[in-house]
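Recap slide: PA2779 family protein, sequence and predicted structure.
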Amino acid sequence: MQQSRIVRSFVAHIMMACMLLISGLAQAAPVSTSSMIAPQSVAATDADREKLITLIQRDDIAEQLSAFGVDPVDAQMRVADMSAAEVADLNQQIDSLPAGAGVLGAIVLIFIIFIITDMLGATNIFNFVHPVR
């Protein structure tokens, strides 16, 4: 009887020590909505950015960009440097274009974005566009 009491006491002490160790590692804090949404929006932005890059890599679009005097590699680098809002806006505009006219419209849209970024001084793709200072 005395021996089972000692064993129970020993097991109880081991259990208490384990509970104290585990509870010291656990933490709880309030979580904001924006901190939970941010990882999802990063994944969505990466998917949108990848969609634009694969669009630029298409042969017909690369030819059109070259016809406008834009190097497709420069276009890909510009897409990689775009903010999340710019990527989402550009994808939304491309998705809203009618079928068949989307390719030309997308090329013109990217061309206009490059001209605007040249005017702002963010890029230097076209020699005929002088940055606003």
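DSSP finds six helices and no strands in the chain.
The two ends are 92 Å apart (CA to CA).
(End of recap.)
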